[in-house]
Structure prediction request, 231 residues.
Amino acid sequence: MAGTYLVLGLMLTGIPFFGGLVFVLVSPLLLGGALLAAQALASDAPEQAPLSYPWWEIWLLRPLRALLLVLGDAHQTFRILVTSVLVLGLVLASAIVEYLLTGGSVLSGLAAGDLAAPMKTAKIVGIGIAMLLRVVLFMALLYLVPLTVLGTRPPFAALAEGFRTCTRHALPLAIFASGFVLVAMALSALVVLSSAVWLNYLAVLIVGAFVLPRFVAGIYCSYRALFPSSP
Prediction:
């Protein structure tokens, strides 16, 4: 399932201009399917794929069906579509503010700094504000999809409730997220600094296939711990 998501992400982000936006738009939908699959695995014995199934059934069709589980109910489909648009709007707004503060992104702002001379104070402050904005966005979005899909909350209510929960449990969630954030930043830095496209793709596939399932499982388990009364 993680491999299917990563390959789809690499294909979409390779499309100029709008590919990355499409990937952001569909990611909440696919995460919702993964969370429903995790819920099914936690409540029932996992269904084993017969060895006689062809490889494309095991490695492609079954993961795709799992990622699209969220489309099985009309009300749930509406909520996740609104959630996807909300996530895209927040990511775009954050990217615009980050561009105005750093002239690009946090990583490009750091890479553009002249190591032979001290960076300007304004740029350092801008990078600091941009990083704080990323933390706030992460806190707002961390439990948005679980609360919308598993908790059947309206998207805007889920956004506010998830952010409040993150502020109340900031330290354990920071410890949980720090390792994944460092891995994501390392991959982003590799993509920005490396000119070998094949190496970037290979690193994203290998590291992502290992890290992404653990991140989704961590979100699901922490959601169950922090929202025990939710469905």
Remarks:
- The mean pLDDT is 84.
- The chain has one domain: 2-226.
